[in-house]
Automatic annotation (TrEMBL):
Keywords: Signal
Signal peptide: 1-24
Family annotation (InterPro entries): BON_dom, Lipoprotein_DolP
The protein, known as: BON domain-containing protein
Species assigned in the record: Limnobacter parvus
Domain BON: 40-108
Origin superkingdom: Bacteria
Gene3D superfamilies: 3.30.1340.30
Pfam families, per database record: BON
Length: 110
């Protein structure tokens, strides 16, 4: 089941990146982000989400992942400090990740 979730996350992220055009906001300015970089960031995000989905310690449903120019930002909630650290370790293992900003909040079961 986890592999199916991971594959679905990767496929949906890649589909969105392929269908979302990136345009310059002004005639004389460079595009806000090169299309290649957008695809790379989307691929990194999908791979990090897939690693989280496959891992038994990290809740892929509670941890959000965003990538901008190779910098991964993790946010959301975790039940333990170990889950927070594990989510970061997994993100750093993905090829193309330059750094990880871990903003996950600890929300233990009450």
């Amino acid at each position: 089941m986890n592999k199916l979730i991971a594959k679905t996350l990767i496929a949906s992220s890649l589909a969105v990146s392929a269908l979302t055009p990136v345009y310059a906001t002004e005639k004389n300015r460079e595009p806000m982000k090169a299309v290649g970089q957008y695809v790379d960031d989307s691929t990194i995000t999908a791979k990090v989400k897939a690693k989280h989905a496959e891992d038994k310690m990290v809740s892929a449903m509670r941890v959000e992942v965003e990538t901008k120019q190779g910098v991964v930002v993790l946010s959301g909630e975790a039940k333990t400090e170990g889950e927070i650290q594990r989510a970061e370790v997994l993100a750093k293992q993905v090829e193309g990740v330059k750094s990880v900003s871990n903003m996950i909040e600890l929300k233990p079961k009450s």
